[in-house]
Design brief:
Blueprint: E1 5-10, H1 13-21, E2 30-32, E3 44-45, H2 47-50, H3 60-66, E4 71-73, H4 77-92, E5 97-102, E6 105-109, H5 111-114, H6 117-135, E7 139-144, H7 147-156, E8 162-165, H8 168-175, H9 188-196, H10 202-207, H11 209-216, H12 218-227, E9 245-256, H13 259-279, E10 282-283, E11 286-293, E12 298-304, H14 311-323, E13 330-338, E14 341-342, H15 359-376, H16 384-387, H17 390-402
Parallel strand pairs: 2-4, 7-8
Antiparallel strand pairs: 1-6, 1-7, 2-3, 5-6, 9-13, 10-14, 11-12, 11-13
Amino acid sequence: MDQIIIHVDMDAFFAAVEIRDNPALRGKPLIIGSLPNERGVVSTASYEARKFGVHSAMNIKEAYRLCPGGIYMHPHMEKYKAVSMQLHNIWNSYASALEAVAFDEAYLDVTERAGDFEGARKIGKEIKERILKELKLTCSVGLAYSKTAAKTASEEKKPNGYFEILTPRDFVNLIIDRNVRTLYTVGEKTAEKLHANGILTVRDIQENQEGVIRLLGKQGQWITRLAFGIDDRKVTPRHPEDAKSIGREVTFQKDVENYQLLKDILLLLALCVNNRAKRVGLHGKGVTLKLTYSDMKAISRSQTIISTDSVLDIYINAAQMLDQVQIRPVRLIGVSIYNLDIEKDRQLSFDDVFEAFSRQKEEELGALLREMGQRYGLDFAGHLEQIYQRDILHKTVEYMRKHS
């Protein structure tokens, strides 16, 4: 049986949750991310804000220039995660396989449950109705024969839309004269390469297959297949071990030149990364340090190690790499682990995270946390569960910066 796939994409998810919980925000340009006087980017913008040209990943200063009358808010990630879990419960009740792309977006294989496109049509509309009734949120649903077509369909009638693309011919007829960016995997840089070679539309790809493949190699082969509506990828549930890396980063509201402060923040980031890795049962065999300087130049340094089984393994290696880079004002700092593998031992909870360390490492980590606490007048060891939360981490880092 051919695949029957539904793609669900929530409408302006973060903003929609905030509007649902505070109806006074309805109808107003709402921008979730940073405040106008802070550094950062837009996470989500309501559709009212998008009318001003504001969009996700836009620098917050540019967003404010475009929409000075907007309402700017920090994200409440724990709340969005909780709603996302409710969404996944709904989606999983219909799908034989579910591939989550983000908190608010997923592919559902409904081939077995639906039986045919008529059955899938009922499922797609029922999902929309349940999300509206149970969560008071809207979503856009695309029903199609493939993942790419389903994704394209869900975007066709946003917001609160429903659209079907049932055959490759339907897909090609819909997008053939659209910009190449309409195809999956064609990002801004790839589109620039194609445009520079006179390939502007999907039709141009069809008519210049060999040239596209010469220009882009394997990616070109994939793109030319998509241009004819060919996509046989399966809906694949994402498991933690599928991740390429686990990381955490923070952007400072003012540049930091104090490298002792940077090292202290590396320890907090190492704690967060290690906690996340333990909770999903993974460990890494490499550590990456990421820095963005005040002039927006970004650098990264990586080194492989035997294992990232402890906070100290991550922290010491990241700190060593920090010692080797140029000392000048830093805007962003991040730490990640890579070469991930499944941890053989049991997964850890917040309550027993320190049990993963040897006694010596536990004592050394405790001493570092106490020493750091004395510098800033904070009890780090006693409040780790809070620091693992993204918003608390950022507030803590800003407090440390101001009192360093």
